[in-house]
Amino acid sequence: MRVLGIETSCDETAAAVVERDDQGHGHILSNVVLSQIDEHAPYGGVVPEIAARAHVEVLDRLIGQALHEAQITLDDVDAVAATAGPGLIGGLIVGLMTGKAIAMASQKPFYAINHLEGHALTPRLTDRIDFPYLLLLVSGGHTQMVLVKGLGDYERLGTTIDDALGEAFDKTAKLLGLPYPGGPEVEKAALLGDPSRFTLPRPLKGEERLDFSFSGLKTAVRQLATALEPLSQIDVNDICAAFQTAVADTLDDRVSRSLQRFRASFPDVKKPALVVAGGVAANKVLRDGLQRLCSDNGFRFIAPPMALCTDNAAMIAWAGAERAGLTPADSLDVAPRSRWPL
Ligand code: KG4
Ligand code: ZN
């Protein structure tokens, strides 16, 4: 079973072909991603209109490239899967309509995929892990702790009540005059800074609920930066170090509670797993902290390769491949949804 996947929900245009073999294992035949970062960088964030136009301009070519790299033609594809939400509506329309058109013209089944389900199922493609497991999704648009119980069976344990974590990194970077995307810049500056010079808040730390909150942290950075004006490079480094430490500490608190919750729900699972996904998972300090937390609590820590942690179409194709044969294909009437909780 070979599935062509299409992803256009944010600022990456992506197409991929994934094969699922008779044992149910996945193989990536091609995975093409074109990032629009350069087009959005002058604005310090993703501009929806620019994103939608950029998807239109390159998607056809990327699909052709994905088929070419997989050394197949459309005839060799068994199903088409495209992201239908959540995300920026203009981009979603481009990818969903393209996917439907290809499915209709080639008379293949079509799967409208929830982008979050794509992230949630990725470790089954990369690490062939079994249900159930925990997923921490931390990207520019999402911050969620999800209990992945089975295909189509997801329970959101917690989410952000304000900014996504990547967004908090990006906004902090912008406040400090660092370029977009801010995550890697903040991480670099933090390496050179003194984390003990400033103490920033740890939002929701100690609370029973498993939600996240980051806007208070960003506001504290703004107040600190204003008080210190004009900022020296040392100030910037020290603020970044304080910010990253506060984030690591907050994640530690929220995630350790989630691990306990998992244990309580699934006492029979011998070696449970925590999977991280999303661009923020590239952060080494945060990753190391999560890894430590997992080993202290008897959890496996799974971080798929970065190219499959950030937005891509292989995860969308794989979600389609997992669904094919188990759930009916979607109707071509399906509409894009900018909001679509798992
Ligand atoms: O999953 P992703 O590539 O795409 C979307 O959210 O669309 O995530 C991008 C986010 C950005 O906010 C970026 O600043 C953040 O991930 N990010 C990082 C790092 N690398 C990327 N955040 C913290 N540390 C990093 N090293
Ligand atoms: Zn994503």
TrEMBL record:
Fe cation binds at residues 115, 119, 311. Its EC number is 2.3.1.234. Its cofactor is Fe(2+). SUPFAM superfamilies: Actin-like ATPase domain (SSF53067). It is found in: Cytoplasm. It catalyses: L-threonylcarbamoyladenylate + adenosine(37) in tRNA = N(6)-L-threonylcarbamoyladenosine(37) in tRNA + AMP + H(+). Keywords: Acyltransferase, Cytoplasm, Iron, Metal-binding, Transferase, tRNA processing. GO terms for cellular component: cytoplasm. Binds 1 Fe(2+) ion per subunit. One of its GO terms (molecular function) is iron ion binding. Substrate binds at residues 137-141, 170, 183, 187, 283. Residues 27-318 form the Gcp-like domain. It is an enzyme of class 2 (transferase). One of its GO terms (biological process) is tRNA threonylcarbamoyladenosine modification. HAMAP family: TsaD. Belongs to the KAE1 / TsaD family. Required for the formation of a threonylcarbamoyl group on adenosine at position 37 (t(6)A37) in tRNAs that read codons beginning with adenine. Is involved in the transfer of the threonylcarbamoyl moiety of threonylcarbamoyl-AMP (TC-AMP) to the N6 group of A37, together with TsaE and TsaB. TsaD likely plays a direct catalytic role in this reaction. This is tRNA N6-adenosine threonylcarbamoyltransferase.
